[in-house]
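[SOLVED] Need 3D model of a two-part complex

Original post:
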Amino acid sequence: MRHLRVLWRRFAGMLSKNRVERDLEDELAFHLQMETAELIRRGMPPEEARCSALRRFGGIARTKEIYRETGGFPMIEVFWRDVRFALRMLRRNPGFSLLAILCLTLGIGANATVFSWIEGILLRPFPLVTQQERMMAVTGTNRGVAGHDDVSWPDYQDFAKNCTLFDAFIVDRITGIALSVGDRAERAPASIVSSNYFDALGVHPILGRGFEPAEDIGRNAHPVTVIGYQVWRERYHGDPRIVGKALMLNGLPHTIVGVAPENFHGTFVGWAMQFWLPLSMQELFDPGGYKLEDRGARWIEGFVRLKPGVSPTRAQSEISAVAKRLEDAYPATNRGRGVRLYPLWQTPFNNAGTLLPTLKISLAVAIAVLLIACANVSNLLLLRSFRRRHEMAVRLAIGSARRRLFAQLFTEGFILAAFAAASGFALAYTCRNLLVLLLPARGGVSMYLPGGLDWRVLALSAGVCAVSTLLFALVPALQASDIDLAGAMRAESGGVVGGGRRALLRSSLVQVQVALSFVLLVGTGLLMRSLRAVEATNPGFSTANVLATTIDFAAAGYNRDRTRNFQELLVDRLQSLAGVQSAAFTGLAPFTVRSYQSASIAVEGYEAPPDRQITVESVGVGPSYFATMGIPLVAGREFARTDTGAAPPVAVVNEMMASQYWKGLDPVGRRFQAKGQWLRVVGIARMSKYRNLTEIPQPFYYTPLLQTGGGSGLEVRTALPPETLTKALRSEIQKLDANLILGEVITMREQVDRTTAFRRTALGMFALFGGLALLLAAIGLYGVMSYTVSQRMREFGLRMALGADTADLLRGVVRHGLKLTAAGILLGIALAMVVTQLVANLLYHVSPRDPLTFAAAGAVMAIASLAACLVPAWRASQTDPVRALRT
Amino acid sequence: MPPDKPDVLHGSLVLMVLRTLDSLGPQHGWGIARRIEQTSGDVLELNQGSLYPALLRLEQLGWIASQWGTSENNRRAKFYSITRAGKKQLAAETENWERISGIIGRFLRPGGVAS
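Solution:
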């Protein structure tokens, strides 16, 4: 209480400084006058009385100083004085200030941007959702099979019922829906969610309601939907009476029961959801039939929220115990099936998982750039502090404390950093949503990956800024602290011997820069080689002359027979078009983001390990699919139009499946069982890739669409460019049925390239920052070399006078520069050996210590430093000996 | 400055200022300094300059208040007066001082420590 009052009075005193000063002046003058008068009254002569009064008072200036220190906050006032002085210094040297601020802006801006990405995509990806730190993603596991699987609804309900450490289990299955807009249809991202979805997330619809428990139950029993805020504003112009109106989704009228709040985009990293549908509508929106009562149908992706104070490990062990009990209770469907919880930032089924490695690398790269920027600014400050050595020495000589010089230098650093932080934040604000641009749109819907620039990001960036201030201001401050007064006061002009320690400091700063940029160059090189290797990988099917598209039969209300008839008709008509060689339908084209069906199989004559289920993925394909895709058959035949539901069930297996389960026997003509049905193998397909170019080869089989039904993917083998074919396709489909929606038409090449987009993103990031770092390092080297040359002018002059020629001097300076670089590169090699492990999971067919890449990076670095040395070296060789020696 | 006059102890200056204002009522700085020297029979030489930061400090603590007024010779002067908190502090410090001086006194009496 008392301290508070004192603080307040001090503060008030600081604000009314001028008045306080005037009052003190008056008061002291009054005192002296009274004292003088008193002494005169006692009989002293006036002159002597005045002197005596002053003496008895004991130092006016000192009293004032003590009074001021008691009255205000001297620290703040001194700091403020330092700030103003620093601003003046920076203004006087705008080139230096701008360069330093630019370097730091890049460093701090890069960090703040990456922080905002990590915050918005990994840490707090779902705006408006409460307590995200307690949320975890739920996936299924299958013993003996790497990767993640989904969960069935009966299992999920059992987890929710039997676990005690969880607040909520919510379902959030992404789907695409078709909605009618006038007479045509449009696709939009949507989620199938459990009825507790909105309540559990703490998100309250602004109009109407969320879902009710009854809406989880029944087969297509509750055609209701909650629409997104943007849909409400744009499609319905913010109609306040929207609740209760109907809307056609996938060909069925749905009642709008609620409108989600603004900024709520669902819980799927990468997409902004526009519609939410209750679980009971699963069959309509999720392909593959009715699954709500099938414990073997795994399709659910979801999240849990742990109770407060429950650790992820405890939660995991509880839910695993429940999964074990289910495994015992339902061996037919659950043998080997477990469940795994992931923190949100590792969620495997949305884009958090796919972006994680890229973001990790971005962070490492951003930090490297910041370090390089700091080293550069440090070097600039050091150079300038040398020029200001005289000023420092004078200040020390007239009694300034060394810590005051320190404070002054740090204040200058702080101001540079403050400017850089402001422009860095502006940079981060501009770039926070940039990640979307680096990733391609899929199916015509662009991704939604906003950065989150909240107080946490700002605080962390400010912290980074403060640390970097310390880093770059420390070096000049340290060297200012050991100024040799006597030496510095002597007017110094170009001694032959430069300050040895200072030169060493500057050199090591440059070496650090060279080392860090070398590491970034190596990273760029490794990623570039990986991308080359990936792109050179043969996917096992034709890419250039095959077009892929989709036709949404479900949305137009087609049943199985109608779909099959349409497919046959369309394929016939397409094949009669000029330029089209063949066409075939498939359940799912390779390299999309959707997953294949998987089924546990039993192979005749093959004994599976007892506690495992053999699970193999498969896809349904139409007649002449293999010919269309250019996948060769190594044995047997491909599907024909005669492989219908009436004919015996057949399958084509890939080479790996053949060798793994039939071990040297010819599988053609043999049988295996899947989904309770025996399939006879009629052919063996050459290995090809299914999801991406770098996947590990896996067993796989194909079934005829005519027997399994469905098939929304269409592949066309043609020499025509996609634009031409889109038009022809659209008109053919239009002629047959105007209600069908044709998806995006792209080449398989494009489809394949989309799966490598994240590699290009990472490479782009590295190349950009690596280039930047190289530039910064070159500038640093240039600075050191020019400075050294200017210090050694007299020495050069002397050497020339003694007979050295220009080539000697040129060589000498360049050699010095390259020596610095070489030391930096050696340091960089040691560093790169360790840190390239970071990108190891992005590398493909390249060792993280690939010698060729290291050599190339070294060569690039050497060329850059040679360029940086040439100008100073040339200047050295142009020394005029007469002038150099005279000055 | 004559060397034989003792300096004012810092803590005791506070006590003297408060006591002066308590017994004489509002005073300006010179008045307080004069009074302290007089009371000591001009034995105590106050470093008058140190009085003013001390007054500011006491005011910040809320023990005294100040107001500009007119002096006996018709000049603008700052008058200090003791506050209620200051009176409480004075009582506490007086008691404290007496206790301490009593203890010191006992120490200084012949045979004081031994008994």
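Edit: Residues 554-739 of chain A form one domain.
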